[in-house]
Amino acid sequence: MTDRTIESPQDVAEGAAHLARICPRMARAQALTGPLPLRRRPDGFAQLLNAIVSQQLSVAAADTIWTRLKAARLTGPRKIARASDTELRAAGLSRQKIRYARALAEARIDYRALRTAPTEDVIATLTQVPGIGIWTAEIYAMFSLGRADVFAPGDLALQEGARMLYDLPERPRERQLRQMAEAWSPWRSVAARQLWAYYRIAKDREGIR
């Protein structure tokens, strides 16, 4: 059975209403942030390559490199496999990211099959590729596949958002936040959207920069 997916703003609203019913803190966050965004993205090779490109870079730097790759038509697996290291370096990829990009191209992932695969299989498949960690795989499942019950507890903004919303003495670690998120099932992806939205507002109130 395919995991439930989020396809529309109405799906997000349904999840947010559920979270508000079961958790007063989520209800308080929702009252502050208002409706949550859909945040769906395309799926496939290019989306994961973009994630690799963006690792440990500012948004501006990652956008510049991605623009160069698109201009050189180096965003598909065959193009990456056939390109020389010199061409990939010219677009801005480091030696390590060239290796990761080639590994992704060589993995020959069946992206169409991932659309209906269980979420745990999606994450297991993606994390076999060098350069794709569990955070990237969970974000891909959440936004590119629209899975409703995925969370990314390794995300620092989610950790900090949870700390502020639940008045925790310190930022929860990944394992602790993963356990907390179990209470938000079957709408953990909406809970993530809620915490991100709350974090953006609350950090300004706390003076975090």
Any overview of this molecule?
There is one protein chain. Helix 11 packs across helix 13 (188-206). The model has no long low-confidence stretch (mean pLDDT 95). The chain has two domains: 9-40 and 149-206, Orthogonal Bundle (Endonuclease Iii, domain 2), CATH 1.10.1670.40; 45-132, Hypothetical protein, domain 2 (Endonuclease III, domain 1). The chain has helices at 9-22, 24-33, 45-54, 59-71, 77-82, 85-91, 95-107, 111-114, 119-126, 134-144, 156-165, 174-181, 188-206. The protein is an all-alpha fold and 209 residues long. The chain is built from 13 helices and no strands.
Ends apart, CA distance between termini: 43 Å
Based on secondary structure, the structural category is mainly alpha
Radius of gyration: 18 Å
CATH class category name of the largest domain: Mainly Alpha
CATH architecture descriptor text of the largest domain: Orthogonal Bundle
Proportion of helical residues = 55-70%
Order of helices and strands: HHHHHHHHHHHHH
CATH topology of the largest domain: the name is Endonuclease Iii, domain 2
Mean pLDDT: 95
Low-confidence stretches: none
Question: Largest sheet, if any?
Answer: none
Number of helical runs?
13
Total strand segments = 0
Bulk shape: globular
- Strand residue content: under 5%
Count up the domains: 2
Short précis:
This protein is an all-alpha fold. The protein has helices at residues 9-22, 24-33, 45-54, 59-71, 77-82, 85-91, 95-107, 111-114, 119-126, 134-144, 156-165, 174-181, 188-206.
Give the topology:
Layout: H1 9-22, H2 24-33, H3 45-54, H4 59-71, H5 77-82, H6 85-91, H7 95-107, H8 111-114, H9 119-126, H10 134-144, H11 156-165, H12 174-181, H13 188-206
Helix pairs in contact: 1-2, 2-13, 3-7, 9-10, 11-13
